[in-house]
Amino acid sequence: MRIRIAAPAVALAAVAALALTGCVDNSTPSGGSTTNAASSVKKDDTLANQLPDKIKSAGSLTVGMDNTYPPNEYKDDNGQPVGWEVDFTNAIAAKLGLKVNYAIAKFDNIIPSVTGGKDDFGMSSFTDTTEREQQVDFVNYYNAGILWASAKGKTVDPDNACGLKVAVQSTTYEDTDEVPAKSKKCTDEGKQPIQALRYDNQDDATNAVILGKADALSADSPVTLYAISKSNGKLQEAGKTFDEAPYGIPVAKNSKLTPVLQKAIQALIDDGTYKKILDKWGVADGAVTTAEINAASKG
C-alpha cells in the first residue's frame, strides 16, 4: 500500500500549490463518517471475556493506520481519521466493549509495530498475501480488486499500456507488483515499459492524471471509484476491475486476539452492521459473508 517520506521545502511548496488547484475534493461525503457507526453496536460479553488480559486491562485497542487512502481511511477537516474502515474498526471495538486509539503511521511501519507489540493490530487496506502471512496473521473482512482510471475522454487499456505513465501510491500492491509485472510483459515483448509515477498519497496520484502528468492511475477498486466520484467529472474508469484479493487485519502471529477479532467481525456481518457501513460509503461490492483467517494461503 503506502509510504511517505520527509520532503524538502521546495517539494512541500509544490504539494501545497497542487492542493490549491482544487482538483480533488475528499471532504467527508454526506453519507460518510460524520455519525458514530458504533453507536448501535452492543457489547458481546462472551467475546470480551476472551480478549487477551493486556487488552482487557487497558480497555482499549491500539490500531495502526496510515490515513491517506480515501474512502477507506483518511483525515477529516479537523485531522481526525475517517472512512469506512474507521467506522468498521469502531464497530469492532464497540462489539468488544473497547475504545480505539489510532496510531497514525507510515504504512510500511504498521506491520513492524504489530509484530513488535506496539500496535494490537493494523487497519489500513492491507492486501492479504502469502508473503505477508509469514510475518503476521490476517483476519479477512473485504475483497478488493484493482481498477484503473484515466482522464475523461481518454481511452486507456490496462492490458495494453506499454509506454504510458501510470500514477500509483508508493508501496501499494499496484506499485510493487501489478504495474511492474505489466511493464515487464511489455519489455519482454520488445515494447516500451510502463513508467510508474510514484506518489506519497493517493490524492497526489489522482491529481497527476487530472493535471495530465500521467495517462492513468491504478489503485484498489473502492479507492479508484471514490476518486472518480470526487473528480467533478474529470476522471473515468479505464477497463474493468481485476485481480480481486482479500483485505485483512494484520495481527501478531498466533495471537489470542486473532480468533476474537474473527468472531467479532462475523457477528457484525451477521447482524447487518457491516453491510450498513459499506452501504453508507458506497463500497458494498466487496462485501464478504464470512470472516476468514489467512485467506491468501488458502487459495
UniProtKB/TrEMBL annotation:
It comes from the Bacteria. It comes from Leifsonia sp. NPDC080035. This is ABC transporter substrate-binding protein. PANTHER family: ARGININE-BINDING EXTRACELLULAR PROTEIN ARTP, MEMBRANE-BOUND LYTIC MUREIN TRANSGLYCOSYLASE F. Residues 1-19 form the signal peptide. Keywords: Signal. Residues 60-285 form the Solute-binding protein family 3/N-terminal domain. It holds the Pfam family SBP_bac_3. SMART domains: PBPb. The keyword Cell division does not apply. PROSITE patterns: PROKAR_LIPOPROTEIN (PS51257). The keyword Metal-binding does not apply.
